[in-house]
Amino acid sequence: MDRVGQYEDLKAEIHSVVAGETYVPARYASAACLLAEAFRPRFFWTGFYIVDTLKPGELVVGPYQGTLGCLRIPFGKGVCGACADQQASIIVPDVHAFPGHIACDSRTNSEIVVPVFDANGKLAAVLDVDSEQPDAFDETDRLGLEAICARLLTA
Ligand code: SME
What is the number of domains present in the chain? Predict the structure, then answer.
């Protein structure tokens, strides 16, 4: 199966697993698990940074699969913070060339970050996927991950 088909299947699986779940971290954890499993080993770190409603302008680490991630990222800092600011997906083919990139694990060479919105269209989190491979992410990943994130909180 090609990657477009893989994302289609994964989207259906993730949305069906989380359907009706009221505890939001369970939704994030299930998505991180299924995404990491599906695209191992290309996905080296897969997880969510959540908008901290108690500390405006800060993301705090949520459910993830991978090595230890940094706990907090201010809006505007690193790729996750830039995504939170812009509320749009960012693909970084070479993290070493990204100004202000936060290196939680030096093995990361490329990454993609996708925003997650709640039912009111407000930014709730960002999905961060890191890879040891350089230039690991393309438009298929962006569209696939965006489609999964689009209904992650409302399925
Ligand atoms: N690379 C990210 C930081 C998070 S971790 O790598 C898990 C960034 O620059 O936003």
Answer: 1
